[in-house]
Amino acid sequence: MGLFDFLSRFREQKEKGVSTSAAMNDVKKAAQASNYNQASIKAFYALESIGQNYAQINRDISTTAREYSQLLVDEGRASTEELEPIILNFEIAKYSPDEVTFDDYRDVETALDSIYMIYKKGKPAKSKKSAKAGKKKRKRPKKRATGARRRRSS
User: Fold this and answer.
1) Is 52 within the bounds of a domain?
2) Residue 3 resides in a domain
3) Which residue from 8, 33, 71, 148 lies 20 to 30 Å from 82 (Cα-Cα)?
4) Is residue 55 part of a domain?
């Protein structure tokens, strides 16, 4: 089995996608085994599954976790504050020698559950303001009396 075969199998698995509920169950199983690093990594993959299944936002192989979260924010239903615990702990678990603690994992679980509920309810994406909506109306200057009116009133 060569490198090409491995990469093509990986791509096939990624393209098939995982059901969101199965991805959420994988997160919970890893947490029950007290493997919070693995649970944090799987939480990001569950987030990716939510994005694919509910928002039709696919993640390219070259897209980082932060770039993908920004795509979800740009879509309008999730905010940066909601996604931050998932992304931060994913990066710690994946790239840092530090361990994800139980308290950190609880933040991830809470954020993931709230995002899942937002997308599952099917709330429409927040509409972006039109260019005209942001502009303030220009006030007209007050009319001043002409010199002729001033002379008559005196």
Assistant:
1) yes
2) no
3) 33
4) yes
Per-residue pLDDT tens digits for 32-91? 999 999 999 999 999 999 999 988 999 999 999 999 999 999 988 889 999 999 999 999
What are the backbone angles phi and psi of residue 2, rounded to the nearest 5°? -95, 175
pTM value?
0.68
- Specify whether the CB–CB gap between 109 and 31 falls below 8 A: yes
Q: How many domains does the chain have?
A: 1
Domain that holds residue 26: 12-126
Collect all residues with Cβ–Cβ distance below 8 Å to 66 and sequence separation of at least 6. 87
CA distances from 138 to 130, 132, 141 (A): 18, 12, 9
Q: pLDDT tens for residues 18-40? A: 688 899 999 999 999 999 999 99
Asked whether residue 133 is assigned to any structural domain, the reply reads: no
DSSP state, residue 78:
S
